[in-house]
Amino acid sequence: MKKANITIAYDEEMLNAIRLFLTQKDLDLDKELTGFLDQLFKRHVPSSVRDYLELRDCVAPSPPQKKPSTPGTVSAPKS
């Protein structure tokens, strides 16, 4: 699934305090926030939509692969 960035405004001193105490507990702020967003998603998005998104990700078409060039074939520059 493609990732998106979220930007929010939050009190700088409070954010620094959160980072300090999470670091003391050997926790990562990004992981904690992602976990919280996952909880919000599960709580507020209907299960049928969650199932659809999961199914769509599983059967997403793979990007076309480039054919490798034949070794030893060199094209002459156009003049």
What is the fold's blueprint, element by element?
Elements: H1 12-24, H2 29-44, H3 47-58
Helical region count? 3
Average the pLDDT over all residues and give the rounded result: 87
| Parts with pLDDT < 50 across at least 5 consecutive residues | none
Query: For the CA atoms, what is the radius of gyration?
Result: 23 Å
Oligomer: single chain
How would a textbook summarize the main sheet?
none
**Outline:** flat
Distance between the termini: 46 Å
Helix share, percent: 40-55%
SSE order in H/E notation? HHH
- Measured by DSSP, the beta-strand proportion falls in under 5%
Helix-strand category: mainly alpha
What is the β-strand count?
0
Structure description:
- The chain is mainly α and 79 residues long.
- It has 3 helices and no strands.
What does this entry show, briefly?
With 79 residues, the protein is mainly α.
